[in-house]
Specification:
mainly alpha, Ferritin, two-stranded antiparallel ribbon, 2 strands, 74% helix, 2% strand
């Protein structure tokens, strides 16, 4: 039976498409404000510009990568499916770019600090075949989405809604799970290789997220305290534990050992 505290904690969680719940405190402070009020704090504004810039470049890079991965697709229908996903990622990019312009920020300047780190992540995790590309689209992108959902709990109302909207699944999940599980069923040996690949993606993605945060003072302050009330170093550790647990569940959905 849940205690009253456990019931409140469940009620204040952001639902997650893979079953992960992102903790959200009862809206107070910045998390309960609108953008006009919250952005009066210059440190908070800088953190949001960083966040939107990182997200925007991530969506642009995802668009480019999925369009490239479509070339590896074994069938025309698969190629079309990846092309549709790429189109959805570009639509998310355009929403983020539009929001940056609306708040008076240059989208290119906001994205530039994150380009090198994200490009390096994609260089180090370039898939060697169609199946590795699907696992990366499902597992790798979802790790980043989990991280941004955690941050979203500390944002003003309008920015939080935008961030959660652009993190909506674009069709990666069911498509990737279906194709990967079918491939493992047809050739069980594939599972071992893809499991190793999934573990590598997890390590690289977490390292990349930590590097990005460490290099941006406003964004790191949002995570460990200051402009984001109630987020301490211990909670950051719990956050990464939740991301790891969600990764384990996704690997199981693919039929792979984490």
């Amino acid at each position: 039976m849940e205690t009253s505290d456990e019931t409140n904690a469940t009620a204040n969680a952001i639902p997650h498409p893979d079953g992960m719940a992102t903790d959200m405190a009862t809206p107070d402070g910045i998390a309960g404000q609108d953008w006009a009020t919250a952005s009066a704090d210059p440190q908070y504004r800088a953190a949001v510009v960083d966040l939107l810039g990182a997200l925007a470049y991530g969506e642009l890079a995802a668009f480019e990568r999925l369009a490239e991965d479509a070339k590896l697709a074994p069938a025309l229908a698969d190629k079309a499916e990846l092309a549709a996903m790429a189109s959805a990622e570009f639509a998310h990019f355009e929403r983020l770019r539009g929001q940056l312009m609306e708040i008076g920020e240059d989208p290119t300047s906001a994205m530039e600090p994150f380009a090198t780190a994200l490009d390096e992540f994609h260089r180090q995790t370039a898939p060697s075949d169609w199946l590795e590309g699907l696992v990366k689209a499902y597992v790798g992108d979802s790790i980043a989405s989990d991280f941004y959902r955690e941050v979203a709990a500390r944002l003003d109302l309008e920015t939080r809604d935008l961030v959660l909207a652009v993190l909506d699944d674009t069709g990666h999940a069911s498509f990737a799970v279906e194709k990967v599980r079918a491939a493992i069923e047809a050739e069980p040996r594939v599972g071992g290789r893809l499991a190793l690949w999934g573990r590598r993606l997890m390590g690289e993605a977490l390292s990349q997220a930590q590097r990005v945060v460490a290099q941006r003072d406003a964004l790191s302050t949002m995570l460990v305290g200051g402009v984001a009330e109630g987020f301490d170093l211990a909670e950051v550790g719990r956050m990464f534990n939740r991301i790891t647990e969600a990764h384990t569940r996704r690997m199981a959905a693919l039929g792979l050992a984490a």
